[in-house]
Amino acid sequence: MAFQTEFSFDLPKGFVDEEGNLHKKGRMRLATAADEILPMRDPRVQQNPSYLTIIMLARVITKLGDLPGIDTKTIESLFTTDLAFLQNFYQRINELENPNLKTQCPKCDHSFEVPLDFLELSREA
Predict the structure, then answer these.
(1) Which domain of life is it from (predicted)?
(2) Sign of the CA dihedral 35, 41, 46, 51?
(3) d(CA 60, CA 39)
């Protein structure tokens, strides 16, 4: 199975463009470090930290209906329900997944996987 970097979504309400067309189906890619770091330099984010969400979503949404492109004006024009949905979707697809460590019981030779939590390990150090 290939590593998935783009995910489909359906907006609860949908984006209405200038011609009155409704766009509900879209795609979002996984965020990169640059997607989270570079917007911090934007003056709009420095004036209003809440604007970070707008810029980040504009960077990671790759498709929305038949729109030729997604920019901050598109994200600003979303209904609040759809904005909240996309924020949640972003969190879900970019959530840190802990890897599993394959190991074997030294007594019975039973093989099994144990979740490896790097965050927990760093707290113990």
Answers:
(1) Bacteria
(2) negative
(3) 12
> CA–CA separation, 84 vs 78, rounded Å?
10
Q: Between the CA of residue 48 and those of 26, 27, 39, 40, 102, what are the distances in Å?
A: 27, 27, 12, 10, 46
Distances (CA, A) of 106 to 72, 103, 110, 111, 122: 56, 9, 8, 10, 26
pLDDT digits (tens, 9 = 90+) for 20-56: 999 999 999 999 999 999 999 999 999 999 999 999 9
Q: Which residues, other chains included, contact 26 with Cβ-Cβ below 8 Å and sequence gap of 6+?
A: 8, 9, 10, 11, 61, 62, 63, 64, 65
For the chain, the 3-state helix, strand and coil shares in percent, each to the nearest 5, are: 40, 25, 35
Instruction: Flag whether the pTM goes above 0.85.
Output: no
Contact 64, 70 (CB under 8 A): yes
Distance of CA 14 to the CA centre of its chain: 18
